[in-house]
Amino acid sequence: MAIAAVSTTRLWTLVAKEFWRKTRRRLRAGPIHRWRYSGRTPERVLIAPPDLRLADRQIALEIYYGRYPLSGHLVETGGKSPFQIAVANPGWQKALHGFRWLRHMRAAGTELAAANARALVSDWITIHGSNISGVAWEPGTTAKRVIAWLQHSSVVLQGAEFPFYRAFLKSLAMQIRYLRAMAREMPDGKDRLRARIALAFAALSLPAPASALRGATRNLAEELDRQILPDGGHISRNPMAVLEILADLLPLRQTYANQAETPPAALMGAIDRMLPALRFFRHQDGSLARFNGMGATIHNRIATILRHDDTAGAPLLHAPHSGYERLSMGGVTVIADTGPPPRIEVSNVAHAGCLSFELSSGRRHYVVNAGVDTYGAAEFRPLARATAAHSTATINDTSSARFSHSLRVNDLLGTPLIGGPQHVPCKRTDQQGIQGFLARHDGYVARFGLLHERELKLSTNGNVLAGRDRLLRPGNAAIRNNGRDFVTVRFHIHPDIGLLQDEHDRLVLTADESDTWVFTCTEVAPEVEESIYFAGLGGPRRSRQIVLAFKASQVSEVHWQLTRTAIADHSAKS
């Protein structure tokens, strides 16, 4: 109960800080402070930084005809400017005002696409350029827009007349001054880091005194040292954050080089740590493991980033600072969450998935977490974040961490994770021909007085994954049969995998004749239930899950095994 009280206190402290931050932001956007964002207009853009994000010239054509496919949501404007219509989808609004879609105009490479880009930028300047309010001027969105305008300035300014050229540079300079004023007070997390990245891009790409570049470089270095962990993960523990931040840091490193400036050691060190971390979270088919906010993977995006990885050899197996473990041999990959939740300030998309794991063999995923539907309805997010949506154990169908459902909190912070495991000790148990780990978490101690301990071992050249799940009380006291010790261990099966039962009543996971897995458990008869896989490229899909259900007071420990075999070794039935 004391832990819950501390979490609640921290939550309301964060609410108060965010309320004050937003109040100060409104004040700074008012007429009293707005004069601070005016000033000298740069004469030109010195350099257009590269953009590593994938581009599609077909999207440029769609935008030309008034169809805007942004953030998984299509809006048809009917001939109006997209900045003049009201769209309820906040993700679409942020994507529109972030201007990353300019890269599609660059990919089109036509005068028509450049003219359309210029017209849309002109619309934004006219409608929102002097009205510092709303989604358009959220600091995180402003940072994206500053980077995008700089990266694609050559397209926007192609064939531009002098009045537009000056208006573009004047607006860009105003946004940079605004972002510089807001960056230090932004909430913790990747948006704040991106603001520092945007200001470094600006100091390199526009005429500026040397002191401006030194200040931007120093602030960027401090933020990188604080947000990028020693093993290359991000403080949010979200694998997607690693990919997104690298997509900005790699062009920034190149921009420093192109301007003959020395990049900060923190930038070089962060990239050197984050590239192996990205490979750590990657399955052999190129997708990222579905933990803490990760949804569907666009494989080409990762491949584009990893072309800049000069490290050789296999990915690391141990990420203690990020709180993950990896087992890998014989074409089989197991990735597990073995860390406590991130700090409440950066937990808005974090999951209650402690000790969950994913198993892939070759390019097939067998055991997965449900992941999130990145662009789907917000009401499904709590389901995707719950412990039951992960391949791990739940007690009394309760998540191992709590989420805020207060409307007041949600309006200010979203839905942060406000409780969960405090201590997650983990140790590797590798031996000759065996990779493994043993970990436990205390997320259920406060409510049910139980610890969950999990041991995984991958052996026999990747053909056997042996698991042990144990429930125990602190001090190893006997578990009481009090009606609050019902345990469910779940193994969510990827929807592309067939789940059959063979003649020996064993569960068989099959994708093709050459790669089949058999699930067995010695203490509890496994059952099959319906499930949902949220992280499909086309949205949520129906799937199934293997379930081990028991009372901890009767069965405190279960041993289960996934064994790779050939389908010819057994005859299977539906």
Descriptive notes:
- The protein is α+β, with helices and mostly antiparallel strands and 574 residues long.
- The chain folds into 3 domains: 39-185, no CATH class; 187-315, no CATH class; 333-566, Beta-galactosidase, Chain A, domain 5 (Distorted Sandwich), CATH 2.70.98.70.
- Helices cover 36% and strands 21% of the residues.
- The protein has 17 helices and 20 strands.
- The strands form 3 sheets. Strands 3, 4, 5, 6, 7, 8, 13, 17 and 18 form a 9-stranded antiparallel β-sheet that branches. It has a 9-stranded antiparallel β-sheet with strand order 9-10-11-12-19-16-15-14-20, with no helix packed on it. Strands 1-2 form a two-stranded antiparallel sheet.
- Helix 7 (139-151) packs across helix 9 (162-183).
- It is elongated, with a radius of gyration of 25 Å.
- 44% of the residues are buried.
CATH topological fold name of the largest domain = Beta-galactosidase, Chain A, domain 5
Number of domains: 3
In angstroms, what is the radius of gyration? 25 Å
Question: What is the overall shape?
Answer: elongated
Q: What is the structural class?
A: alpha+beta
* Share of residues in helices: 25-40%
Biggest sheet statistics: 9 strands, antiparallel
CATH architectural category of the largest domain: Distorted Sandwich
Mean pLDDT: 90
Protein name: Heparinase II/III family protein
Organism: Mesorhizobium prunaredense
Domain Heparinase II/III-like C-terminal: 313-561
InterPro entries: Chondroitin_lyas (IPR008929), Hepar_II_III_C (IPR012480)
